[in-house]
Amino acid sequence: MTSDLRHAAAARETETAPHLAAVPARTAANAAGEHGIVRNPGMALDFGFLESMRNVNRSALERRVATLTKRRSIKADNQAAWLLRAIACMDLTTLNSNDTDERVRRLCAKALNPLRRDIAEGLGLGDAVIRPAAVCVYHPFVATAAEALQGSGVHVAAVSTAFPHGLTPLSTRLQEIEASVKDGADEIDVVIARGLVFGAKWQELYDEIVAMRAACGQAHLKVILGTGDLATLRNVMLASMVAMMAGADFIKTSTGKESVNATLPVGLVMVRAIRAYFEYTGHLIGFKPAGGISTAKASLDWLVLMKEELGRPWLEPELFRFGASSLLTDIERQLEHHLTGRYSANHRHAMA
Ligand SMILES: O=C[C@H](O)COP(=O)(O)O
């Protein structure tokens, strides 16, 4: 364990719940790494640890979520700052069957200038650069996005393993990852084959993710669980843990294509898995809720959940992302409302 992580663990032990709030911002910031966070090296698949995970109590989770979202008291002045943070933690996404290079270029242009000039000026942003953390695209558009975003610091994320179902031979999925990395992807969002969860084939799931992590090389690995397909919250907890043990840098809820996408109770299960993994290993894993998050209000609920359950470091793009195709539109509208007291039509905040 590095001294930074030892420091984080020591800080954790001195605090009361939610004790990860004690982890200092950018805990591992001194360690080398493109994101300023020590990458999760993974660990051997530990069946004993998996078995020790308690059953998930859905009604307790729902009560906790209700408390969190009701207790939230982000006042109007703070709200604009939180919404800017939501932009900074966003993977601005297009994953449509009718995507084109031109559409991806327009989305990248939006990522480079996410707020209309009058809104940015009205907020007094000056030289501050507020941009999404990444643009997320299908593999065929990685090179286009990489070229459009070159030098900007906005990453290219690719969904590269037979998204959204993950149902091609592993060798094909690994080749797709390698091709995306070669084309310039900084981050790879992979989907798991959900059948491995239903069959409790944890070893096979673990081995697949280990292979995917190896195929990523320096690119960061986000593992999409497809939680809406996983049937039980215990499956969500166990799949989260297996993904982290196999070396995931982030765990992500959904593809956006399941009938149920990111929900706060499922998110709570996953962030508690992240907490348990941290307590066990000292490694910090990112979280990405994705799918159906389209309103500024929803983004605030998620940010509150992260702050209350895991603490300040999980309000940084190194450890938290929204996967969202239309959230930026609503955030921009709300920021305009904050400045003018009026709402404008969505088309005034075009994405791509
Ligand atoms: O990973 C991101 C999701 O596919 C985006 O879903 P969304 O279009 O519902 O925002």
TrEMBL record:
Gene3D superfamilies tied to this protein: Aldolase class I
Signal peptide extent: none
Reaction it catalyzes: 2-deoxy-D-ribose 5-phosphate = D-glyceraldehyde 3-phosphate + acetaldehyde
Gene Ontology biological-process annotations: carbohydrate catabolic process; deoxyribonucleotide catabolic process
Keyword Phosphoprotein listed: no
Enzyme Commission number: 4.1.2.4
Keywords tagged on the record: Lyase, Schiff base
Superkingdom of this protein's organism: Bacteria
GO molecular function: deoxyribose-phosphate aldolase activity
EC main group: lyase
InterPro entries in UniProt: Aldolase_TIM, DeoC, DeoC/FbaB/LacD_aldolase
Any one cellular-component term (Gene Ontology): cytoplasm
Pfam families in the cross-refs: DeoC
Pathway this chain belongs to: Carbohydrate degradation; 2-deoxy-D-ribose 1-phosphate degradation; D-glyceraldehyde 3-phosphate and acetaldehyde from 2-deoxy-alpha-D-ribose 1-phosphate: step 2/2
Family: Belongs to the DeoC/FbaB aldolase family. DeoC type 2 subfamily.
Name of the protein: Deoxyribose-phosphate aldolase
Native species: Pseudaminobacter salicylatoxidans
